[in-house]
Amino acid sequence: MKKIILHTFLLIASLCFSLAQAQNKISVTNLQCEMLNNPEGIDVLQPRLSWQIKADVNDVKQTAYQILVASTLENLNSNKADLWDSGKVTSNESVNVIYNGKKLKDRDNAFWKVIVFTNKGEIKSATTAHFSIGILTYADWKSTRWIGYEKLSKDDSISQYSKLSARYLRKEIDVKKQVKNAKVYIMGMGLYELYINGNKIGDQVLAPVPTDYTKNVKYNVFDVTSQLKEGKNMLGTILGNGRFFAMRQDYKPYKIKSFGLPKMALQLFVEYTDGTKDVIRTDDTWKLTTNGPILSNNEYDGEEYDARKEMEGWNTINFDDSSWVNARYVQEPGGFYEAQMTPNMKIKGEVKPISIKATAKGTYILDMGQNMVGWLQLKVKGKSGDQVTMKFAESLQADGSLYIANLRDAKTTDVYTLKGEGEEIWEPRFIFHGFRFVEISGFPTKPTVDNFVGKVVYDDMKTTGTFESSNATMNQIFKNAQWGISGNYKGMPIDCPQRNERQPWLGDRTTGAYGESFLFDNQTLYAKWLDDIKYSQTQDGGLPDVAPAFWRYYGDNVTWPGTYITVGDMLYQQFGDAEVIIKQYPTMKKWMLYMEENYLENDLMDKDKYGDWCVPPESLELIRSKDPARMTDGQLLSSAFYYQLLNIMKKFAVISNANADIAHYDDLATRIKKAFNAKFLNTDKNYYANNTVTANVLPLAFGMVPENLKDKVFQSMVHEVEVTKQGHISTGVIGTQFLMRTLTNFGRGDLAYKLASNKTYPSWGFMVENGATTIWELWNGNTADPSMNSQNHVMLLGDLMIWYYENMAGIKSNPETPGFKQIIMKPDFNAGLTFVNASYESIHGLIKSNWKKDKKGLEWKISIPANTSALVYLPTADSKQITVNKTKLEKASITFKAEGDQQVLSLQSGDYSISLK
């Protein structure tokens, strides 16, 4: 009996020791609420909680979880979950778990952690996370007044080139007791900087994110407990113009929406250690001046700053503000107040110039070496009144001077006037530029590159993707895409950052947003953008081509507004975000019905506005093609696209529990497909319409081609690419969204590779060969009419970035398990590359794919995040050729099966080294 007890004890001890070893290698990290890095002041009462499991051992599966949520950190540390104890929930879900505890109220704090149960044992999150509720109702803002100054200063003007000086506001407050916690809630229109006792609050820039302020206004929340002291304190703000005071105020009012002069509403909510509370609000006791150093700030034209007018100590106590006026009560913007659920912009990096050269006219040309978005920091010494002018552009003329014709009427100029007190360092606050080159004039000494630093500015989102391959051209295209995509993230996805446009065009991101999601964590940005689109819907159901609708472009075509639906699909597929679909579904359905009722004729969508925008012209000198053979029928485009949207809406109907809608979508899709093939399919010659690549790729990609003709239609398309266009791209914005994947999915990854690696016109590589460091707006932007070419656009990327990751690296989310719960790893090893080294930080964790092939065989190292799995495809019918982690596949504990000439391995999480000889 003693031997049995001893044996049992040893067995238990051994198991405990093994479990402890396993737990040392497994951790729960990256706890997030609503996928936000800083979830202060959210307005979601049942937020979604997510976490990642990281492990150094293979085959880690979550079997259950227990979430603990408490009102204080002390309660949470004592495991007193006074807000919610989920109990042990049997589930493998670790993302988007909906809070289901006590009802949360205005300003409630919640601290949480999670206990995860796995097949390897129980793991507790080593860290805790926090979120807080914002101001939920309009009534809670009601006694907070909007303040501002509804007059122009003597040097201000409202015109095509409006100038408006910044508004400086200050308020001295008395903090009566010791502060336990304090938060400030601010709406500063159009842009703001907030100070307490002389210190800037937060490291954000160009805040808040832009919206249509008549529809919704975003507020930011900051914990300022450590900034306040007992006694006198000073609140200070600077208000810039942003999109609120329109960049072309009172110019083309039929097109450009404007909102008025800058204004602000603010609450400072203070809780004292004795339990009492206080609220400081904006009112007409705040003091204001427009006589500060920021003379003008206009996103198109630049910022003017006169350092002689600086007001030292203006945002601290005991400053003499007797010359300032009392702020005025002003009309509110009109939109509902919402917590900002996407990050603000930040300075995300620095670029040092590579050269500076004198010109014949006495100025200097600064070369940053990279087309970038942001501004310059200036370091200068000189006399009071010296004025340094910096004009920004993307390229140079033949004589070495700035090329500015493509900027249109944007002045893109910053002016700094010195105060003359030793070394002065300055950078603008309320503007950004898209530029590589800067003309410097008025510099008091001979400038060097050390006098300037480029500040890179975009939304504060994580870079999630890396990609490197054996092809140098493709690698540079990837870098160009990274720079272009990030630079055009400005609280909304804009088309370009340099000329007098900078608008959130829908058509630029229809499929592009999907590719971008591999490079950047853009989930909250695009969820916010879907709200912008929703708010822009007309009462009868129409959607604009630009949203927020700063430009009144309501054209009722399919391909641009359809982005509303395709971006929703991306958020579901890439991030597993079903809530965004449920939220947007009624508006999406309303638009679909609007288009059907107004433009469906004989079961075809008889409405198109832009065609296959930016088809490569037949000549390097043409801006737009004049060859009808290159143009794709607009009815074909809109009908095919609408058919695809119907199929997506069927999926959305299921997610939204609107199953009654499915029959209508099915019936209409069937009718459109029949009418489409009857009108456009040439069954004698096996191609659609006039046989453009776009005319064929859309029905192939959308599953509209009769089964018995798929291969023949595909061969017609291949002939156009390979023979007629000599292996070059011939699609515009619409066709390029589906070209690369369709070629590869039908077995011609080699042809897709040729398109991706080409260096001659038209191609992405042609841009690289001609010095591009971002993606151009036109395939021939340097040779046609450069004045029409933005050198930093993303719309021509199409599905290229998706193809990089899904078809070359083999990192794809299985559509049946959205959010990379199961990964499909199926690279096209025979397309033309000899190695790929890529990674992607999914919502479940880091996915890696690093393969290399030569005459000896294939070596492939992959990493699969914990609590996920992967289907791994290897190009051989012979399983005996495969080893996994130095073990023959047939002897390894791995499930595999043959599919045609491939072996498909079902791998659980972990790191694997696969060899194929």
From TrEMBL:
<dbReference type="Pfam" id="PF17390">
    <property type="entry name" value="Bac_rhamnosid_C"/>
</dbReference>
<dbReference type="Pfam" id="PF25788">
    <property type="entry name" value="Ig_Rha78A_N"/>
</dbReference>
<feature type="domain" description="Bacterial alpha-L-rhamnosidase N-terminal">
    <location>
        <begin position="177"/>
        <end position="348"/>
    </location>
</feature>
<dbReference type="InterPro" id="IPR016007">
    <property type="entry name" value="Alpha_rhamnosid"/>
</dbReference>
<dbReference type="InterPro" id="IPR008928">
    <property type="entry name" value="6-hairpin_glycosidase_sf"/>
</dbReference>
<dbReference type="InterPro" id="IPR013783">
    <property type="entry name" value="Ig-like_fold"/>
</dbReference>
<dbReference type="InterPro" id="IPR013737">
    <property type="entry name" value="Bac_rhamnosid_N"/>
</dbReference>
<feature type="domain" description="Alpha-L-rhamnosidase six-hairpin glycosidase">
    <location>
        <begin position="463"/>
        <end position="808"/>
    </location>
</feature>
<dbReference type="GO" id="GO:0016787">
    <property type="term" value="F:hydrolase activity"/>
</dbReference>
<protein>
    <recommendedName>
        <fullName>alpha-L-rhamnosidase</fullName>
        <ecNumber>3.2.1.40</ecNumber>
    </recommendedName>
</protein>
<keyword id="KW-0378">Hydrolase</keyword>
<dbReference type="Pfam" id="PF05592">
    <property type="entry name" value="Bac_rhamnosid"/>
</dbReference>
<feature type="signal peptide">
    <location>
        <begin position="1"/>
        <end position="22"/>
    </location>
</feature>
<dbReference type="InterPro" id="IPR008902">
    <property type="entry name" value="Rhamnosid_concanavalin"/>
</dbReference>
<dbReference type="Pfam" id="PF08531">
    <property type="entry name" value="Bac_rhamnosid_N"/>
</dbReference>
<keyword id="KW-0732">Signal</keyword>
<feature type="domain" description="Alpha-L-rhamnosidase C-terminal">
    <location>
        <begin position="810"/>
        <end position="886"/>
    </location>
</feature>
<feature type="domain" description="Alpha-L-rhamnosidase concanavalin-like">
    <location>
        <begin position="358"/>
        <end position="458"/>
    </location>
</feature>
<dbReference type="InterPro" id="IPR035398">
    <property type="entry name" value="Bac_rhamnosid_C"/>
</dbReference>
<dbReference type="Pfam" id="PF17389">
    <property type="entry name" value="Bac_rhamnosid6H"/>
</dbReference>
<dbReference type="InterPro" id="IPR035396">
    <property type="entry name" value="Bac_rhamnosid6H"/>
</dbReference>
<dbReference type="InterPro" id="IPR012341">
    <property type="entry name" value="6hp_glycosidase-like_sf"/>
</dbReference>
